[in-house]
Amino acid sequence: MVSDVVTLGETMALLTTPRVGRLRDMPELLMGIAGSESNVAIGICRLGYRASWIGRVGADEFGELILASLRREGVDVAGSVVDGAVHTAIMFKERRTPAVSRVTYYREGYAGSRLGPEDLDESLIGAARIVHVTGITLALSKTARAAAYRAVEIGRAAGALISFDFNYRAALWPPDEAARSLRDMALRSDLVFASDDEVALLGGEDPISIAQSLTGGGERAVIVKRGAKGAVSVRGADIHDEPALAVTAIDVVGAGDAFVAGYLAGVLDGAAERDCLRLGCATGAHAVTVLGDWEGLPSRDDLVLLQHAAGTTLR
Ligand code: KDG
User: Fold this and answer.
1) Which residues of the chain have pLDDT under 70?
2) Distance between CA atoms of 21 and 204, rounded to whole angstroms?
3) How far is the CA of 35 from the centre of ligand 1 (A)?
4) CA–CA separation, 4 vs 160, rounded Å?
């Protein structure tokens, strides 16, 4: 299968507390899957394009759950590896207060972080229009980082657009090491996504000027995700600012991935910069209205839903 977007990274089993409180006080948990790159792949498929996800899962029930869930969403997982030596990683998500969630990872040394360059199917990556990687993969392990670099090299040589989301995870690496690595990968990419906070990791006061300094005078676009404030795209002196859609947020984890999926679908559509931002903001808004890291991702038909007044019943 030829995919429009190929992405690689770690997807974990996700166990979420069904209500507000501490994990230890919950007699039951909700089970699902989570992974930034597979979230993007699902978003791309829901918006009508083909996406492949490459990663390692254990030969266990969680690995089966991940592959089955991705297949059900139309994501191609033919390039992924079942690793019989270790288990699939787990992420726990607690809603500690109605407004604050806390994530705990059980992932070091688990299957996803054993991803390596030898796992990559060069013909799959070389045929993609976009190769998408994130800072999470850079932080996971030396081999996972090498896989991300190799995927970018293959994509670049084949003429694909390279898309990179900072996705800084403080639990995975220290900020100074992250800043060096994130900058390096950003400078190898065509489309760079980062939140205000992530851009600030690189040092400096104003996120937009830092973003501007990364664009290489306009050879790449840096898109700053600002949550409820929308998104700004910077390419040299060209700046587009798009407000967020006003929605009631239920679960904001995964909103950034949803934004990226929408923006990249806009790029695949051949849309103008502002329309890519708009689609990104719309998919991000949809994602936060539903519990789960990717379940709220919209199809094209869903995109009109946010235009209806609260209380509307569609019959
Ligand atoms: O962006 C949402 C992700 O944080 C989540 O789905 C899990 O990939 C993940 C991570 O490393 O936190």
Assistant:
1) none
2) 37
3) 5
4) 10
